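Lecture 7 notes: from sequence to structure.
We start with the chain below.
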Amino acid sequence: MRSDIEGRRRLHSLDALGEAVGAMKSLSAHHLRAARMSVEAARTYRSGVERMLQWSGAVFARGVEGAGLLVIGAELGFCGSYNSQVVSEGAARRALLGGGPTLCVGHRAAALLRRRGVAVLRDYGMPTSVAGIPGLLLQLAEEILGSYAENRLLSFDVVSSRFAGVGSVSPESVRLLPLEVARADAWPGTRYVQSGVFSFAAIREFLYIALYDVLLDAIASEHGARLIATQSAEKWLEERTCRLRRQLAAARREASTQEVLEVAVGVRARHEAMAHEQRWASPRFGL
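Predicted C-alpha cells for the same chain:
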C-alpha cells in the first residue's frame, strides 16, 4: 500500500515536470522561429548601412595597444554545453589577444569566464527573445565605442555562436573594430550635416546592426540548443513515466490477485468450518 502511494506521488511529479519541459520546449521553438524570421530584414538593413559607410569613407582607426573582447553566452540554463563551448572559445580568444577589457553578455557565461581566470570588466543580461535586443543594444554599443576610443585599443572582437542549424553550437570570433571602408567613387554627399558627423553616425549605426545580427544568431543558437535539450528530457520523462505506470499497474494486479486469494482462502476456511460443525451436529455423534 505504501509503495503504491509513493509510486503515485512519483508519477504526479513526473507529469508536472513533463508539463514544464513541454512548455519550455514550446517557448524555445517560438523564440527560435522569431529570431530566424528577423534575420533577413536585419541583413537587408545592414547592407544599406554598409553603403552609407562606403559613401562616407568613414574610418575608425586602430589605437596603440590592447584588444577588447565581447563574449555572448546564454542567460538561462538547460541548453546543454552551449555556455561551456562559447566560454571556451572566448577564453582562448582572450589569451590570444593578450591584455584588454572583456565584456560579457549572459551572467552564467560571465561566471564561467571568471572561473577560467578571465577578468570580466562588465557583464549584461542576455535577452531571451528578439524583443529584448534593443534594450541591450544601445548600452552595449556605447560601451564598446567608448572603451575602444578611450583606451585607444588595437581591436575589438566578439565571440558568439553563429546559427548553423538546430542543436548546432558553432562559437566563432568576429572583428568589430577597427573599421576601415573604401570610399565609393560616386556618392550623394551630405547636405544637412557635416561629413564628420555623418561618418560617426554611420559607424555607430553599423556597429548597432552588426551587434544586432550577432545577437540574433546567438539567440537562435541558444534556443536551438535548449530545444534539443528539452526534447531529450521529454523523451526521458516519457520513458520513465511509462515504466512507472507499468510498475504501478503490475503492483495493482498483484495486489488484486492477493486479495482474491485471501478471499478464496477465507471462503474455503469458512466452508470447512461449517462442514466440521455439521459433522459434529449429526446423530452419529449423538448430538
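Points to note: Residues 19 and 234 are 9 Å apart (CA to CA). Residues 12-233 form a domain with the Pyruvate Kinase; Chain: A, domain 1 fold (CATH 3.40.1380.10).
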